[in-house]
Amino acid sequence: MKYDPFDHAEQMGVEVIFRKIRTANAIWYPDHRLIVVREGMKAVYTKSALAHEMGHVTFGHRDDRPKHEVQADRFACNMLIDPDEIVELMKWTPDSVRLAVELGVTTRLLRVYLNVHRLAG
Fold it and tell me: Which end of the chain is more exposed for a tag (fewer CB within 10 A), N or C?
């Protein structure tokens, strides 16, 4: 079953709202158990940003220090990308943009996944 960051947020008791924000695609407010997502983004960016923020929730992060950002990115890519699916798709195309589209993630999260799993060539 595919990971749904909206379901995960609901299960964790985290409210997700959409607002106009300029500084990020999404922001985690731990004291309010709230994630604010930039409104108007394409679905792939919304899903990827929310999965990243759910990484912060899962790890109990209370700030955005670089170490936490790396952990949240790794969480998001591991939750959103099926290892068997990416291996099969990589047989079909080496193009990272096409891979990201097929997997339904941002190219940024795809690059994180490829680097973490040493699949980058």
Answer: N
The pTM of the full predicted model, rounded to 2 decimals, is 0.93
Give the architecture (CATH level 2) of 5-116: 2-Layer Sandwich (3.30)
DSSP-derived secondary structure for the chain: ----HHHHHHHTT-EEEEE--SS-SEEEEGGGTEEEEETT--HHHHHHHHHHHHHHHHHT--S--HHHHHHHHHHHHHHHS-HHHHHHHHHH---HHHHHHHHTS-HHHHHHHHHHTT---
